[in-house]
Automatic annotation (TrEMBL), chain A:
It is found in: Cell membrane. Residues 102-311 form the ABC transmembrane type-1 domain. PROSITE patterns: ABC_TM1. Its main location: membrane. InterPro entries: MetI-like (IPR000515), MetI-like_sf (IPR035906). It comes from the Bacteria. The lineage of its organism: Bacteria, Bacillati, Bacillota, Bacilli, Bacillales. CDD domains: TM_PBP2. This is Carbohydrate ABC transporter permease.
UniProtKB/TrEMBL annotation, chain B:
It comes from the Bacteria. It comes from Paenibacillus mendelii. It is found in: Cell membrane. The keyword Transmembrane applies. Signal peptide: none annotated. Keywords: Cell membrane, Membrane, Transmembrane, Transmembrane helix, Transport. The keyword Cell membrane applies. This is Carbohydrate ABC transporter permease.
Length: 326, 308
């Protein structure tokens, strides 16, 4: 940084007086370092270059998904394909069983996320605000459930769910969510606990004095205040359920219930089968190329992406306001 | 007040009464508290405690399909599964060693990256909201299979790393003992970039806990921004650095695509080893994670104590 200043401020402008040199220095460095021009430029460069790293896979997916084979091979075509090949998408939809999987996964993710949101809010509130003997011991259990890898419990849970006859159904995702467990349930409890403990105590006290019971106070006064935290938890939970691969692969063994995250693996096989039935050839080998794969990938991430685009503003603001940590 | 009425018999009665009522009230409120926790409690029993105990039980047994074809046969084998993991299994200890050697390097790099990003995003500048929206994208995608597909095609690599052959530069400048893990981290830079979303959020929230007036006061006193970062911001966020270290550790060790997890899964369906052995592996893995988390929590707590 210091070198940069020297180069820019002093040798570049040799004949300036002390006062204007001072002004330039202030313009470049600012009053408090972080409002100076150099710092601003540095910030923008850093942010833009990292943003490019985050966005480029998305753009790569988008652009490749519309390419046909000649565009894909042609090195002159980098980002913008010469013709938009929409058939990639129709093929991908067929290969993914897209609409069936969409319905199933949406149902699973939304219901699990809603249940987790309410059950974890209840638990988090209890941990933050209610009088509970041995609260600290119980909270250590919450922390413990957070660090236990799912893999340690995968086998017993698999046996449990298969004995209950829940395999190949959304129940292994939905029922634990009802009881504040499930994917990252402990994290959500911690988030709600942090949030509720930042709210002023007077609110509950005045509600109590007006004669409201604990449950009523929670439901009518506290929960509505927790909207920013609820939004964040819902979004996280929805996305993590949508993306879940390990659990889905463990519990969903046939095609009665389809988890979107797994469908990519079956695309090739299904498209092969379709080729067979259409052309009545012996060995159907569908030409599964990159663009079709990317069209499929984009279709898979589309619902969470659309949700994020809508919720993004509240999400970012919510993080500021939740006091996620305290 | 109490001093005024002390000693009178009627008041002693009411004091006792008062205490009893207070106890009853506290019991009632405790009951309410437990009612609120009831769903969670059921959840922990069914989906945590039961599986944990069952998997611990499994890890000391060998499981076979019983000769009549239905049901499973449990044979107690003591510590055999655990011994097998370290002495006979020629994949597990090596994978474990490699995984932790890399992970222990990746964790601080991830947290440092998250901290830098959070500091940048915390500045006031035009278009801050857009950048924030972009920087939270990894939170949405990072867990997905799709991302792995993209990474497999080299999307997400650092463009300049290949262009300038960074690997070679590192090997030329640093001694091999240092260069090897550095290159390892460089190859896993994707993880650092895409698994730091939640950590950035935690840091941003942590910055909000420091009141702006502290900075103003420091500025009036002529403290430079550099000093104010180290004297005000940094001490305030130290606990969150540890929180993030723990989060990153847990996150990286449970994500679905890590080699240990795959090894456990492959042993689960392997007839020769089966559920019993896979459970033992799961427990070894958990104990290591637990010890690391406990260590971090310990260091964090002792730092806090010294400060107080």
């Amino acid at each position: 940084m210091a070198k940069l200043i020297l180069k820019k401020a002093i040798p570049g402008k040799p004949g300036i007086s002390g006062a204007s040199l001072d002004r330039i220095k202030r313009l470049l460095l600012g009053q408090r370092l972080n409002d100076g021009l150099i710092f601003k430029i540095f910030t923008y460069i850093m942010l833009v270059s990292i943003s490019v790293l985050y966005l480029s896979p998305l753009f790569y997916m988008l652009s490749t998904s519309f390419k046909d084979i000649s565009d894909l091979i042609d090195p002159a075509v980098h980002w913008i394909p010469r013709v938009l090949k929409v058939e990639n998408y129709t093929d991908a939809i067929k290969g993914l069983y897209y609409f069936k999987a969409l319905g199933h996964t949406l149902f699973m993710s939304v219901s699990a996320a809603v249940l987790q949101m309410f059950s974890c809010a209840l638990t988090g509130y209890a941990f933050a605000r209610l009088h509970i003997p041995y609260k600290n011991v119980l909270f250590v259990i919450v922390l413990l459930t957070f660090i236990i890898p799912t893999q340690t419990m995968a086998i017993p849970l698999f046996v449990l769910f298969s004995n209950l006859g829940w395999l190949n159904s959304p129940l292994p995702f939905i029922v634990p969510a009802l009881f504040a467990q499930g994917i990252k349930g402990a994290l959500f409890i911690i988030i709600f606990r942090q949030f509720f403990s930042t709210l002023p105590k007077e609110m509950e006290e005045s509600a109590r004095m007006d004669g409201a019971g604990a449950l009523r106070t929670y439901w009518k006064i506290m929960l509505p205040l927790a909207k920013p935290a609820m939004l964040i938890v819902f979004l996280f939970s929805f996305v993590w359920h949508w993306n879940t691969y390990f659990e889905a692969a463990l519990y969903l063994k046939n095609e009665t219930f389809l988890a979107m995250s797994m469908q990519m693996d079956f695309m090739q096989g299904r498209l092969n089968d379709l080729t067979v039935s259409k052309d009545a050839l012996v060995a159907g080998q569908f030409d599964m190329n990159e663009p079709i794969k990317m069209a499929g990938a984009l279709l898979i991430v589309l619902p969470p992406l659309v949700l994020y685009m809508f919720a993004q503003r509240y999400f970012v603001e919510g993080i500021e306001r939740t006091g996620l940590v305290e | 007040m109490s001093g005024l009425n002390e000693g009178t018999p009627t008041n002693k009665m009411s004091l006792k009464e008062h205490a009893r009522q207070k106890r009853a009230q506290s019991a009632r409120s405790a009951l309410t508290g437990y009612m609120f926790l009831l769903p969670w409690f059921i959840g922990v029993l069914c989906f945590m405690a039961y599986p944990m105990i069952y998997s611990l039980y499994l890890s000391f047994h060998k499981l076979e399909v019983s000769p009549d074809g239905n049901g499973l046969l449990y044979t107690f084998v003591g510590w055999d599964n655990f011994k097998y993991a370290f002495l006979r299994d020629n994949v597990f200890p090596i994978e474990m060693f490699n995984f932790w050697r890399e992970t222990i390097l990746i964790i601080p790099v991830t947290v440092l990256f998250a901290l830098i990003v959070a500091i940048l995003l915390n500045q006031k500048f035009r278009g801050r909201m857009i950048f924030r929206a972009i920087f939270f994208l990894p939170v949405i995608f990072a867990t997905g299979k799709v991302l792995m597909e993209l990474f497999a095609q080299g999307q997400g690599d650092l463009p300049f790393a290949e262009q300038y052959d960074l690997t070679k530069i590192i090997y030329d400048t640093f001694p091999p003992a240092l260069a090897e893990p550095m290159v390892g981290v460089l190859n896993k830079i994707i993880l650092v970039l895409w698994y730091s979303g939640v950590q950035v959020i935690i840091f941003l929230a942590a910055f909000k806990t420091i009141s702006p007036s502290t900075y103003e006061a420091a500025q009036i006193d002529g403290v430079t921004p550099w000093e104010s970062f180290w004297k005000i911001t940094f001490p305030a966020i130290v606990p969150f650095i540890f929180l993030n270290l723990i989060y990153t550790l847990v996150d990286l060790s449970t994500y679905s695509f890590n080699p240990i997890v795959n090894h456990i899964l492959s042993n689960m369906i392997n007839l020769k080893t089966g559920y019993g052995y896979a459970s033992a592996l799961g427990w070894i893995y958990f104990v290591i994670i637990f010890l690391l988390v406990a260590l971090l929590a310990r260091v964090s707590a002792s730092l806090n104590q010294r400060k107080g």
